[in-house]
Each structure stands twice: as structure tokens, then as C-alpha cells.
Amino acid sequence: MASSVELTTLGHRIRHHRVRSGMTLDELGAQVGVAGSHLSLIENGKREPKLSLLQEIAKATCTDVTDLLSSEPPNRRAALEIELDRAQSSPVFRRLGIAPIKVTKGTSDEMLESVLGLHRELQRREREAIATPEEARRANTELRLRMREKNNYLPEIEKLAEKQLKAAGHTSGALTHRTVSIMAEQLGFELIYVSDLPHSARSVTDLENGRIYLPPASIPGGHGLRSMALQAMAHRLLGHQPPTDYAHFLRQRLEINYYAACCLMPETAAVAFLQQAKKDRNLAVEDFRDAFGVTHEAAGMRMTNLLTVHLDIPLHFLRVDGSGAISRVYENDDLPLPMDVTGSVEGQPVCRKFSARSAFAEQNRTTEHYQYTDTPAGTFWCATQTGSTSDGEFSITVGVPFDDAKWFRGRETPKRAVSTCPDEACCHRPDPGLAARWEGKAWPSARVHMQMFSPLPRGAFPGVDDSEVYAFLDRHAAE
Description:
Layout: H1 4-20, H2 25-32, H3 36-43, H4 51-60, H5 65-68, H6 76-88, H7 91-94, H8 109-127, H9 133-149, H10 155-167, H11 177-186, E1 190-193, E2 204-206, E3 211-214, H12 224-237, H13 246-264, H14 267-279, H15 285-292, H16 296-311, E4 316-321, E5 326-331, H17 355-358, E6 369-375, E7 378-389, E8 392-401, E9 416-418, H18 424-427, H19 432-438, H20 466-477
Parallel strand pairs: 1-3, 6-9
Antiparallel strand pairs: 2-3, 4-5, 4-8, 6-7, 7-8
């Protein structure tokens, strides 16, 4: 069965050749042996003609069947009518419950253009990955829970990364920029470092000319440019298409980050390193970080991929900003985490008793800080490293249940805290004496977080300014 669009196009081509031949429906019908009303149904795309009838129509209109069956509209007017028919048949339009426009001879081309303009804008907005705050948080929470079920481990991407590394000749040690360039070349891309990268994009891939544009200097930590280049390549290797919604966008972002981590800390070498450290009862994020030349955060996150699956150690990871809010999180060890009514953890204030927050008060910021914390879900051991960026302070924490602390360096720490969160009395209520002393006698000026007023990302690639990116590509394509 031909599709409705194919039948509509066929009908327009038959009408075009009939009119060009100067025949009415009844006159052509008489020549080919059918009623004019039957031909009308065919020309309106309501009925599929038999091949023998098409042959007779082609003969009568001095053309051939191949021409009649062409997928190209015969003229501009037909193209407009076919596009409108397609638009009015789409699920997006049907959901509106609006009656479709019936096109007649008296319908002007200008009116069709105007209506089609509205349909195109409707389709464009439907394709945009727009999310309300609640939708975005729910999508992020669902993704986190799915990864928890998998112990944050994606074997297909692990294998893909090792295959690409082997093809580029990487055997051991920290992944070099040169090897990353070779990996790009094997995919048909050249890495180009520019100083005018669009501010809304970390990298831009020119698919037409085989270029991946990156900023001119690495971000702090030494692995920034390698990671960004690997993420750009991952989109191609994983067959990503423009995301259809915000959840789809988040999944793609997770997958490209995962691929980059697999390349920077390959599974075979990373697991061998971690297994030996466990055997020596000397597991430490800082050692893992230094062995592969990555950031402390990247090393901590990579441990969430590998420790449970390969070393049978459940764990948690937290990135917390200076205000105590969680910006990145993973746990499969049942650490009690704060969450809102949607189940979202990101943005929630972590307990003040956790080392993720208490470490900010430490004087020595160059080493990891260790702590045991008693919680309603049991006792956990944590290692926390603090740092700072232009956006302010942050801490990176990797922790495990008490029984697994024996494998980690720092397990001898005497530091211990007690957290009863989510009980409000733990750390979210002021001291009763201080509250009695100052309640009603103070008026602090609140710091307004500007992100509260920022619009949510929109567009096929959320947060990216298309006009800026296209102008950038056009500018560099001429070089």
C-alpha cells in the first residue's frame, strides 16, 4: 500500500498532466475507461489506481508511468498542498483538535504559505527539547535511578572505548593529546583549537568538513581538552541523533561523558590498578587520579563505574558546592540523601555533619579528609577533597559502608560524626537558645540565586545558541 503522501503526490501529478493536456475529468475518464468521479478520487489521493489504469492515463496524457510515479511535486502549488496535507495529518496537529483546512481552487498560494508557516513553527517547537523545571528534575532522577540499577556500568561503551584505544595504538599510561588526535583522524575528523568558540558550546563538530573545534587551552585538571574531544567523537561512535526531548538529551550527555571516562581510564588497566590497591588495602581516589592524569572528580566518578561490578564494593559519590548543595551524585550503598517530592537529589542541601560539608572548615586543602559518619542507615566512611573554581568552592566525596572501609587508605581516622538527617533537628533547625535570642530581631538580606530566573534550556541541543554556532561554522569553513 502506498502512503497517503505518495498517493497525494501521484494525484497531483496526474492532475497536472491532465490539465496540461486540456482535458476534463470526464474526458480523460472516457479515454481510459473509468468514470470521472473515480479519477477525482485518485487525483485527490483518496484511492490508489491499478498499474494498468496508470499506463492508460500515461498514454492518454502523452507521458510515461515513471513520470507519474515521481516523488517530486509537479509544481509549486502542488508542493504547497502536499506539505499542508502532510502537516494536517501529523500527530502534533491532530492533538490540537482543530479541523483541517480544505484547500479549493480559490485558496491562494499566499494563504497556503501563511498557514504552512504556522505549521512549521508548531513542528519546530515540538522538536525542541523544552522542559519545565519539574520535568527536567524528573528526567534527571529517572536516569540516575536507571544507572543505579546497572551499578553505573555500561559494558557496551566500555568495549567500544577499548576497541578505539587499541586501534589508535594506546597501550598504557595516561592518554596523550596525540593519541586523542589519532582517534579523531580514524573517524575522519581533525581537531582544531580556536579562540572564538561560541560561548554556549564546549565544542562544535563540523560534520560537513570533518572538523572538531575546541577551545585553545585546557580547563584546570589537565584532561579537559582530551575529554571534550572524546565526548564530541562519542556522539558519532554511538550513533546519536538530535535529541527528541530533555530526557533524551540527558541520556546522550551521560553516554558521551561515560565514553570519555572509559578512554581516559580504560577498564582493563583501571580495574587492574584498583584490584591491586584493594589487595594492598590501599584504595585511594588520589592515587587513581594521579595514575591516569585526570581530575579528582573524574577519578571519583570512574570508581562508581568499576568498584561495584569488579571489586564488589558499593559506594557513593558527591560533588557539593560551597553552600552545601549537591550538584552531582551517585549512590548504591543506601547512603541517606536529601531529596524533594519528585525524588530529585541535585540542588538539595547535604547534611552539615557529612564530610562533604565539614571538609570546608579544614585548613589543609591539598589532601583528602577522612571521616566516619553514623546515620539512620548505618555507618559510612568517606574521603573528601575540596577545591575551588571561578564559581566558588566545591568538595568531592567518595565513600563506602563501614565494612568496606578496610580496603581504603584513611580507614584509621578517629574523626567521627553523627547525622540524623532527614530529621530536621539534625542540622536544619537553629540552636534553640540562639533562636530564642535572635528570632524577630534580625533582618538578613538574602542572596538571590540568578539561576532561579534563568530560562530552561531549549532547542534541539539545549542551551546552545544556533545563530551563534552557524555563524561560527560559516566563518571557519572559508578558512
